[in-house]
Amino acid sequence: MVLMKTQVTLLIAFICVRSSAWNRYSAYTYFEVVTICNLIMILVFYLVHLFRLYRVLTCISWPLSELLHYLIGTLLLLIASIVAASKSYNQSGLVAGAIFGFLATFLCLASIWLSYKISCVTQSTEKQLQEYQSMYSAWSELT
Question: Could you say which of 14, 50, 65, 93 would form a disulfide bridge with 35 (CB–CB 3.0 to 4.6 Å)?
């Protein structure tokens, strides 16, 4: 659910910056490139999970690649949003794009935290289950 909100927010940020008049070409081009690249990569990871391609492509560590994508993408999006906010010169489209960029940054951070939390909880639950099973089998052998 967070991924869809992030995609919509990135798309709105891109449209806001793209449809406004620019003063600094390089700053807003950087913002557009970062938002579109994040959109494309989120879509790629969504399709990988949707079609379960991670089962076919086992040579890639998908959790690690997804974590690295979100960390790098979030950092670049934060930088792009700061640059866009500082160069906006009170133009409403650029300010709105920067605000949606900051919102997308927050959503990416939430996605990182949720995916880390889910993977850690799943791993710890599996380890606890294995420990309980081994303790149960040891107990049943004693009795």
Answer: 14
